[in-house]
């Protein structure tokens, strides 16, 4: 056990943050707010927290946002904040998917950095527009593929990069849940409603909500690019409008192969995201529910259980670690690491600089890659499970 | 914990057993012999333990087989034993795959029951001939898909059958190993040599050696029949003649879907056979390396860890259990359960009876199903990963 | 999985917080600060962050504390803040142990609520004085026995209280670490230095640093009071001034018995705090490193794995839970729950009210109980391992 | 994974074995019989399987023992077998404890090797007589402290011996069960009846039945000798005659310290035997319910999970291993290793030789040590938990 101080606090002036979505009754908004507070790098000062103006204002007041910065719509907020000398520097977009693109565009165009939930947009076209706009405006754009923030995932990535696994052959990714085993969207679950509604979620249900997380994580850790996929999307629950189970075969550039399974009807699984990677020299295994552990085996040697903060932790893990080994960190800390990394980039941007090389967070391009993955999977499945190029 | 006597010893006269294959340097022969001894239902009295007559005889003598029953070939043995008044009643065939069919035919035709290793034969044609011959001769024919012998697998099957999981939606089966990560067949491993040699193994490598186990187990537990599959077989190790990694999508009759992954190049996995089944009402999870546990969740209730011999064990598990809960049973006990079940069938046959309904073991038809699975997988893969009917 | 919003944000005005200790190079100060921020109930506005005035001020500036509230000593800070109209309402004391009592006294006497690290003081006498002072001043006094903040520990306590375990018979508590396996106090570890120095830590080393956590947790969950103990304290590392291993037998009022083991030399253990409780009807098991799980068995029934946020979670767990089941929470969230509960008490006090009954946090009396435990253990060990009354 | 043939079959003539106890309704007799068969080194040819002559004979016939060797008493059997030219060479004694000594004496005096269940006798005095008799007769005497037969326990012992852990400081042993949580001895459990009856079990209940196993295992692995102990034995269940919970502090010669907990009332524990050993350089952890794994950590390095048969397995484990890594072995295989090792000693004795150095099994002296442990624990507890010398 190493006992050391948090590496997160840095003393820089807090970033003025706004939020779109995440008002009363929402789930992920509170997660973003906690994540933004953990390292004291942000201050939430403005919000358009609901598409319902009244609820938006009420939610803002509850959170201690000043009345004049409790906006009824994101358009209003983008405009007003851009005009203030103390206007927000960054905005967190935590709405259902269909609002991501319009909101992101509004803030980018207003010169405000964006932290946006995933999947990035409703479709690839929208995603490409965002990429172009980010390129044009030069603003920071982080996508909260939050699982990339876990320290042992950072370590896994570093180990692959250093060649500890040799050449990668196999990537097994899965993300089973069970919360949509029954037709929750018909029994009052607000979360289930919009996630199974193509108008608000896009063409993918399970594939968009969690399949894309598993895919993003697989690419993040291995550094591989997906060449083509073959997908079978299933809707098991009668009357549901979108897929609730996803089975995919993957061929990566360079020859690695993989499988991806995501499901919302796997009874007994809560958030069972798991990644396994095998190369010519070694293998890795990581499970989101127990994120402080990373299994590593060199071929022909005993298995090692690497622990966050413990012996065997690499600097890439240590720099996003807050407490000593054996004191578990969890989902919120991993999420906070995305915010912390984005903060470093924003602080650099304040000075007109690039962030340091070790600053890593999913960008608008990763968001686009996620949309291309979703689109290819939906297309492959509709075409009778044909191999389909990605991107 | 219940402390109770073994349920296996029965006092009936031991079955006179012969063995084909399994001599010096072999692996699985010793496993079969231990399995046959555990419940004291068999006595090994004859053997043709190698295709090399000299080694065959030497091996037999080492095992205490009488010199006049230490045969140089299985043909000789079938003939001689059939002619003896105290001739063998059953034979265990534990050779490489290509010898299964000829040996099985010889003994069936000689009126001798057969316990045969898997995969059943080199191809579907041979397997069908064996099915016909078993039907014609009326002999007992057990195939050692040994994982079906584990008590908690028996329980899983019983739970599915009773409807504890509701209607099955998803079947996730996997069997990763790592022992062929490098080209062991070129560096003196006898086991690796014949398992990667199409002449001795048939058209499938990994798919035949372990993929077929995973498939058999999935069907055994769920009672489902596979309708069609889509397979991607890969040979990762250069110069290898057969597949060393298998990725399969499955569609079962009735609408359930599944994935199957088997690999011999997944570094860090030893014999990672795992089965997960999800239905409308519940989910199950079982791992071969920790076989005394069965995870079960009813939708909306806490997860249960059912233990072999413990509270929550069903009669179907208890009847193949030998020691109290918390005292682990393993691979050999599971294997022995196949032998014990076959013994019950053979003892019934002695009296011209059928075995009791609760006697369960994989038969020649399960062996045929395995061959059809292998053949379909190889065909699907060669056809560019097309959906292919099974059987 | 239930997806629901955080239950922590409440919209009340933030509590103005000061901090004593926790400056550059310290460990636990950063933990307290993160914990205070997670639910947005506190604002850190003043600090005396080191016993070295210069370092104290530098540390405060780094944290964004206004220069006029960056104090050189806690005495100065207590006095100045008490005099300000916007003075701090509460102070977090995160110094080495020997400073707890004097600092706590200064702030209580200044009318400021206290959140103090454990062990409470250097000895029982000091602790009793604090209890008296808290009684006299009526101020809130929370002790950060942070493990009581974990949701599944809240659930365990509730289950015992409801009688789910029947009458408690056995309490097995342990807290092994390995970071003092070698003489780290001689090789530059600041943390090791003060923790092995009787002047700064008091009469107990391992017993005071982690034994007292295990003891507190055992009492918190079971509701039992310790009657007497028999302790064997050992110093394994040559030259060390305090114990680095603790073995204790415990007799609770009412007849339950227990064992407690704490160690700083158990190679391979990071922060291995574990609690197991067995009653006439059921048993519980919880491990700090995997805090989102609680094992529960009713006698004669299958084991259940209860998960934070999952089916089987009780309201007492749910009210301190922030994210859905399967998304792990960790050490910082548990720690934050102590802060959140104290915030509720302080917010009630603002209105001259008592907090709601469901608000639970370790108080100055728990801190005293910890000191009595340490003192009894040291006395028992010195007396040749005699049964010694506690309290 | 290494795939290799069993190391157990050796081709020597089978040892003629008799059995005392273990008839109908008994538990451990069947275990001994399976253990004796697994490696084909023994043939059960005679038995006095019950203290009830009629049941003894009926049980023998059921097991296929010839009628003239189905004895009504062990005295009769010892005499008759000693007189036969094909008389038994060894006897397995599997009765309740009070019959161990008289039976063992009878067979030793008849020149027959003994394999005896534990605890060795009713008291130390009887045990010493057996030691003397073994010395005098020169017969092999194995005690089935069967947990010493597990391969990873053999490895743990070898690792300690080679100094991989440095100097041992701490030994934590535990063996919790829950089967006597209620008063099973009053509701028809034959196993519970004799195990809670001082006339048949001796002065110790839980301490004798399972505490002694934990103690034996701790000494076997560490090679340490116990100097003194301090015990608290408790009877939690009203009306029970013997202890059902055991808490012990231990001081080993050389300075290591330890704790031992055994319980029969720990709800949820089946056979929770666990051993943890910590030294100046490394730590080990092993759990009986998952016996194919051994956790090992070198101080300052990542944890290793060593697997039976896997990379990192030592020759001392490999020589008692039958199946490849990832194919679990269990309780019966470990038990069989005691029989296999005793067989090697008996085979050597046939030739008037000593067994090879690598042959290891618990002897009559280990049995005596177990009795001395029980006696010291009972004495310490009765004396008010005083430190008590052992042996």
From TrEMBL, chains A, B, C, D:
Domain of life: Bacteria
Domain Gfo/Idh/MocA-like oxidoreductase N-terminal: 15-145
InterPro entries noted in UniProt: Gfo/Idh/MocA-like_OxRdtase_N, Gfo/Idh/MocA_oxidoreduct, GFO_IDH_MocA-like_dom, NAD(P)-bd_dom_sf
Domain GFO/IDH/MocA-like oxidoreductase: 153-285
This protein's name: Gfo/Idh/MocA family oxidoreductase
Organism: Phyllobacterium phragmitis
